[in-house]
Amino acid sequence: MRAALTALFTLAAGTAAAQPCGGDFNAFVDALKTEAVARGHDASATERFFASVRQDPDVIAADRRQGVFQRDFIDFSRRLISQNRIDNGQIMSERYDATFDRIEAEYGVPRGVLLAFWAFETDYGQVQGDFNTANALVTLAHDCRRPELFLPQVYAALELYERGDLDPATTTGAWAGEIGQVQMLPEDILTNGRDGDGDGRVDLKGSAEDALMSGGAMLADLGWRAGEPWLQEIVVPEGIDLTLTGLDHEMTVAEWEALGVRAREGQLGDGSLVASVLLPMGEGGPAFLAYPNFDVYFEWNQSLVYVTTAAYFATRLEGAPVYDAGNPRPGLSGEQMVELQEKLVARGHDVGDVDGILGEKTRAAVQAEQIRLGMPPDAWPTAELLARL
Predict the structure, then answer these.
(1) Same domain, 301 and 371
(2) Residue (of 306, 278, 305) closest to 291 by Cα position
(3) Residues with Cβ < 8 Å from 27, sequence gap 6 or more?
């Protein structure tokens, strides 16, 4: 799911009054209708679109239930990357070979990248979700956790309805409002929806060609750099300065090579490219070089463990070997991670949400505390660090 954020949420009801998130759901929907008409949407179409909209408590439950992202990289990636998904990726690559060639020619996005998203999002189109899309979007816009993300999607869904491309009563998808085989939000469909099969319409649910072309267009729109790598497994020399690692530290590939970093297979990317050394489970675990294209993944999904797994799986689908898991130190449970984040916040660090998920802000705070305490600063939180804090 693309997670780019817009300005903080306020909904103009009429011309001046602000309708906040939360409160009475029906009143919130009435305010949405008023604002939609003020934005230029047809009044009768607006009424029809919102007529069937209902609050969906299952959507809120799904939004709160994301403990899977508390898993470490090795556990998470082994759960998501199966031999079946690898085999089906090869089948789909061959079946839609001409489409993938066209995507790479027009947008510069390699087939492995799209195949990985296609696999993880919907198992190559087989599991697209059965949540009512309009209900999901309005429910999440009404909820006060991330209204700034979902409110614009409501108006985008209304525009899709006016175009005849969405039915508020029957269109279904993921709990967060994404639609189709690569799970795109309505705004992204409006911007990057493409007719890949030439039938004159954009059908992201029923046409793999449409879904793949649209996904390629979206990644290009997000800044994908053609002809450049995104993630590469590396071997890091013993004794490397660990303070240089992490996504908030960049050097050129040539500079990394000078420090002894090498590709586990083949050659590193162009020496002039900037890159970061990513140690998702610390100095004893897997090691990757993250190139500028890796940043684009965070516009699709903001979970570090998902992004790293998706980027790595794309390399597997392009022929890379299984990563070397190494021998990382044991990490923390979800409850321990929450405790750690609370201690980091108490020390003045910004870790984002205290949610038990090891994101890049938490990793940066962990590394800072490791430096302060004289521990190996590899940004991997352990029971020893928790105890010392």
Answers:
(1) no
(2) 278
(3) 19
How many angstroms separate the CA atoms of 380 and 389, rounded? 14
Count the helices and strands in the chain (H runs, E runs): 17, 9
Angle, vertex CA 316, rays to CA 367 and CA 377, nearest 5: 10
Whole-number Cα distances in Å, 299 to 85, 324, 348, 352, 354: 24, 27, 27, 17, 21
Q: Which range among 113-117, 158-162, 359-363 shows the weakest confidence by mean pLDDT?
A: 359-363
What would the pLDDT profile of 313-365 be if each residue is shown by its tens digit? 999 999 999 999 999 999 999 999 999 999 999 999 999 889 898 988 999 99
In a domain, residue 328? The reply is no
Are 306 and 338 in the same domain? no
Distance of alpha carbon 231 from alpha carbon 72, whole angstroms:
18
> Both 244 and 362 in a single domain?
no
In a domain, 50, yes or no: yes
List 289's β-bridge partners, or say none.
Answer: 232, 277
Q: Report whether 193 contacts 160 (CB < 8 A).
A: no
Q: Which domain holds residue 202?
A: 82-128+180-225
Question: Is the residue at 215 inside a domain?
Answer: yes
Measured in residues, the chain has a length of 389
Q: CA torsion angle for 132, 356, 73, 59 (degrees, to 10)?
A: 0
Number of other residues whose CB lies within 10 A of the CB of residue 335? 10
Q: How far apart are CA 156 and CA 134, in angstroms?
A: 10
Contacts of 184 (CB under 8 A, 6+ apart): 2, 178, 192, 193, 204, 214, 215, 218
Q: Is residue 322 part of a domain?
A: no
* Claim to verify: residue 215 and residue 287 sit in the same structural domain: no
Structure tokens at 255: 């500079």
**Which is nearest to 165 in space by CA: 148, 147, 149, 188?**
188
> Residue 170 contacts by C-beta under 8 Å, 6 or more apart in sequence?
none
Enter the pTM of the model: 0.90
In the chain, the number of structural domains is: 4
Give the number of other Cβ atoms within 10 Å of residue 10's Cβ: 14
